[in-house]
Design brief:
Two copies of one chain form a homodimer. Chain A is mainly beta. Helix content of chain A is about 10%, strand content about 35%. Chain A has helices spanning about 50-60, 100-105, 115-120, and strands spanning about 5-10, 15-20, 25-30, 35-40, 45-50, 70, 75-85, 135-140, 140-145, 150-155, 160-165, 170-175, 190-195. In chain A, strand 4 (about 35-40) and strand 5 form a beta hairpin. The interface of A and B includes residues 92 and 132 of A.
Chain lengths: ~200, ~200
Amino acid sequence: MSLTERRRLPPQTGTAFMVRRGERLKVIDPCGEQVCDLTAFALDNRTEWLSSGRTIDYANTIYVTKGHTLYSNCSRPMWTILEDTVGRHDFLLTPCSPEMFTIIYKTTAHHPSCFENLATALAPLGIAPNTIPTTLNIFMNVIVGMDGTLQILPPRSRAGDHLTLRAEMDLIVGVTACSAELSNNGTFKPIDVELYSATS
Amino acid sequence: MSLTERRRLPPQTGTAFMVRRGERLKVIDPCGEQVCDLTAFALDNRTEWLSSGRTIDYANTIYVTKGHTLYSNCSRPMWTILEDTVGRHDFLLTPCSPEMFTIIYKTTAHHPSCFENLATALAPLGIAPNTIPTTLNIFMNVIVGMDGTLQILPPRSRAGDHLTLRAEMDLIVGVTACSAELSNNGTFKPIDVELYSATS
């Protein structure tokens, strides 16, 4: 397994790329307390997308971690989580979006958002904005109270913490350095992604 | 407000229909302990769909009930919950599907499923199977442990319990009488849906 590509996402940005079956994607929080929203689509069928609902159902937990499989809406394995140094990621909430900033933050001016960043990055790869599903919000710390109420707490990730995923099919992938104040303890930091070749 | 249509869904079936803005949809559990999976698409834009992720984010709870708005992936209000005599519905899990029965129940023969029933009912209305999102699983009783683990318990609904929704836009709607043993305390019952005209 050797490093084939490394990208640093500046704060409040996104990018998209292809990952081939067997390749590893390592998502690193270089500074700590920074969320990365991730989504994926099957390269051979762009109507097949990473499904929070199917993944949570089969994993029987809202908190996916090392050893879990992430499934598509067709119930095909898309990713396997190989490493997880944090153990707390969110798979309930959609990426922050212009509308979210209006509704929750009462923002009136333009605000960078993961949804817009994903939509912009994925468009050249043939992904329409309205097909972007609930993302895996890596390092995002959401807890569910007994009454169902959600609390968004600062990420548990510290500098250098990471999540490593193995692609189980050829994928189109979108990732961000999250743009929402509340999700990142009030500051915006970069995210690093590393791609490693498949091992035989 | 007057009743304009009433349908009984036999056990393990689904149906689809249009609901105009302002109309009320009442979903009734006539026998008790029976789940109804519901999804919706904008009539004027079939790429706009009922979004669990945006709804949960804006409601700040996984348990939507009376007074909550259900949002589309474009953050437009699709439904408002007007009445809820149960107060426990699931919005985390995808509809039961052929693959779910294979993976979780280890079923080898064909098993009826909400996904197949929704896909079949929605196809004539221009909805492709792969665009069916996480459904609102009315009366489904899913609890989340402190560690994130899910438990599916018998529905809290008794005979006659219901959920009433007002459409906030013209909608294509799919509903089922759920086909999964675990979700319905081991037996399959019908679901009644009633449509009421808009009030001025």
